[in-house]
Amino acid sequence: METINKLSLSLVIIGALNWLLVGLFNYDLVASLFGGQTAFLSRVIYTLVGIAGIWSISLLLKPRTEA
User: Fold this and answer.
1) So what's the pLDDT on residue 65?
2) 15 with 52: CB under 8 angstroms?
3) Residue 55, in any domain of the structure
4) CA-CA distance, 28 to 1, in Å (whole number)?
5) How big is the CA angle at 11 (ends 5 and 12), to the nearest 5 degrees?
6) How many beta carbons lie within 10 A of that of residue 32, not counting itself?
7) Phi/psi of residue 18, each to 5°?
8) Residue 67: inside a domain, yes or no?
9) How many CB atoms are located within 10 Å of the residue 12 CB?
10) CB 4 within 8 A of CB 55
11) What's the domain count of the chain?
12) Residue 20 within a domain
C-alpha cells in the first residue's frame, strides 16, 4: 500500500508542476512530450494523474500515526 501512496503522490506532483507551467507560461509539458493533448499517451498520463488525485484524497483523510 505504501508503494501505491508514493506513486500516487509522485503523479499528483507531476500534475501540479504541469499546471504550474500552464498557468505561468501557457506551456503544457505533458502535451509537448507525448504528441499533443489529444494524443493517446498524453491522455493516458492525464488519466493516471487524475486517478492519483482521487487516490490522494484518501491520504488526506487518513488519520496520521506517530512513527
Assistant:
1) 78
2) yes
3) yes
4) 31
5) 90
6) 13
7) -65, -45
8) no
9) 18
10) yes
11) 1
12) yes
Amino acid at 67: A
Answer yes or no: is 26 within a domain.
Answer: yes
- Residue 53 near residue 12, CB atoms below 8 Å: yes
User: What is the domain range of residue 33?
Assistant: 2-61
- C-beta of residue 55 within 8 angstroms of C-beta of residue 8: yes
Q: Which residue has the cell 512513527?
A: 67
The pLDDT tens digits for 46-61 are 999 999 999 999 999 9
Cα separation, 18 vs 10, in Å, equals 12
Q: Give, for all 67 residues of the chain, the pLDDT tens digit.
A: 889 999 999 999 999 999 999 999 999 999 999 999 999 999 999 999 999 999 999 999 988 876 5
Residues with Cβ within 8 Å of 39's Cβ and at least 6 positions away in sequence, in order, are: 31
**Cβ-based neighbour number of residue 34 at 10 Å:** 17
Residue 65: phi and psi, rounded to 5, are -115, 140
